[in-house]
Amino acid sequence: MEKNKSVIIIGISSDIGLAIADRWLRRGWKIFGTYKTLSPEVKELKKDDVSLIHCDVSDSSSVHKAAGEFKKICQAWDILVISVGLLKPVGSFNDSNFDDWDNSFKTNFTGQMQLVHELLPTRRIKSNLEPCVLFFSAGGINNAPVNSSAYTISKIATVKMCELLDAEIPDTRFVTVGPGWVKTKIHNQIIEAGLKAGESYQRTLEKFKTDDFTPMERVLDCCDWAVNAPKKIVSGRNISVIHDDWGDKELERKLAEDRHLFKLRKFGSINS
Predict the structure, then answer these.
(1) Which residues fall within 8 angstroms of residue 260, CB to CB, at 6 or more apart?
(2) Burial level of 219, CB count in 10 A (0-12/13-18/19+)?
(3) Cβ 230 vs Cβ 172: under 8 Å
């Protein structure tokens, strides 16, 4: 494990963002992050010498301002983590306010890509291990979850964009990690929506009742593996914390040999 890495975490105030920051701080890595709300947990990060910048990812001017401030305080980053997520609006597309739907897409995709675009010039290029941009994905790639279309389509777009960025930018790694059901505050948006969330409402209540969640430690272990794996193994791919044998040498061999594995592909074509 390399030392003295510089890491920017967009959405460091999220539960996963906070957990990543805590683990990597204990390694002596230099952490920078953005927040939308200055919560007590975020304030605690300042005591650990974490450099914090306000950023509303849905606001392009806020994104541009934050990117400019990062360029002043972090001249070269090794890892860029995008840990921002907004489930709202919860409900059918037809019944949703489109401005809310559009804001969700900006938060979950467009604003994040603007940050990546503005911060890529300050990535640290190394010969042994390229800089890494780490995104988080969600369900919806292999089915059609209802009543969360803005969030779902944003995450699917992120998965494909990750592959496109990998193809266009050979000196940088781009990877998405699907954490599964982690016990984080984002699920409160489903509970608040109640029956408007459809089946997701009852499923979320059951998850909390049985405490059936992906352990945060497992998510962090997967992130560690992803940011330290070679480009040919992880870049352009969507890795599931729960369903994939990440870290397994046989799987890594298959990934290195097959450029289509763990990527968004059409299923069921006659000639596929």
Answers:
(1) none
(2) buried
(3) no
* 11-55 residue pLDDT tens: 999 999 999 999 999 999 999 999 998 888 888 898 888 999 999
Q: For residue 141, is it within any domain?
A: yes
* Residue 263 lies inside a defined structural domain of this protein: no
In a domain, 246, yes or no: yes
Q: What angle do CA 9, 171, 154 make, to 5 degrees?
A: 50
Alpha helices in 30-127 (DSSP H): 40-47, 60-73, 98-105, 111-119
Residues spanned by the domain of 246: 6-257
Q: Give the CA angle between residues 137, 186, 28 to the nearest 5°.
A: 70
- Residue 37 located in a structural domain: yes
Check which CATH number belongs to the domain holding 36 and give it.
Answer: 3.40.50.720
Tens digit of pLDDT for each residue in 213-227?
999 999 999 999 999
pLDDT in tens, 70-101: 999 999 999 999 999 988 998 899 999 999 99
Q: 260 burial class (0-12, 13-18, 19+ CB within 10 angstroms)?
A: exposed
d(CA 82, CA 107): 11
List the one residue out of 24, 22, 25, 42 whose CA is nearest residue 34: 42
| Residue at token pair 């964009």 | 161
Beta strands in 79-212 (DSSP E): 79-82, 132-136, 173-178
The number of domains in the chain is 1
